Amino acid sequence: MPFVRISLLRGKPHDYLEALSENVHRALTETFDVPADDRFQAIHQHDPGELIFDRAYLGGPRSDDFVVIAVTAGKLRGTEVKKAFYRRVVELLGRSPGIRPEDVMIIITTTHSDEWSFGHGEVSIMENTPPMLSPGGQP
């Protein structure tokens, strides 16, 4: 149930954004134990001066193709799973839409399952809790 925010400079064509979205999701499904239909993303495009990044700090040099991928996840993953995810994202984005590894920054934040509501103003997933019953006694 991750939510992914993808930030980059404005000006990329639709097919670039589509490949970016698709390949981030593909990496999640292949390495991060995410179901194929669990896809929630927001792509934020910024004008120059609105996405501030150091072009050389820890891993540069970065270009104007720099992209930040912020994953908010509802369950913990081990370090090896995270490393596999980082590698797979960079590999897939290198193929399409053609982003250099130096231009990919990934941040993972983990929350508790009761901090998610997918609709109806209700907690969507509660670990170790039986399903809520409707007034008629049905789950």
How would you describe what is shown here?
It contains two helices and four strands. It has 139 residues and is an alpha/beta fold. It has one domain: Macrophage Migration Inhibitory Factor (2-Layer Sandwich). Strands 2-1-3-4 form a four-stranded mixed beta sheet, covered by helices on one side. Helix 1 (14-31) links the parallel strand 1 and strand 2 (41-46). The longest helix has 18 residues, at 14-31. The chain is globular and about 40 Å long.
Strand and helix layout:
Elements: E1 3-9, H1 14-31, E2 41-46, E3 67-73, H2 79-95, E4 104-110
Parallel strand pairs: 1-2, 3-4
Antiparallel strand pairs: 1-3
Produce a short descriptive summary:
Strand 1 (3-9), helix 1 (14-31) and strand 2 (41-46) form a beta-alpha-beta unit. A four-stranded mixed sheet has the order 2-1-3-4, with helices on one face. It is of the alpha/beta class and 139 residues long.
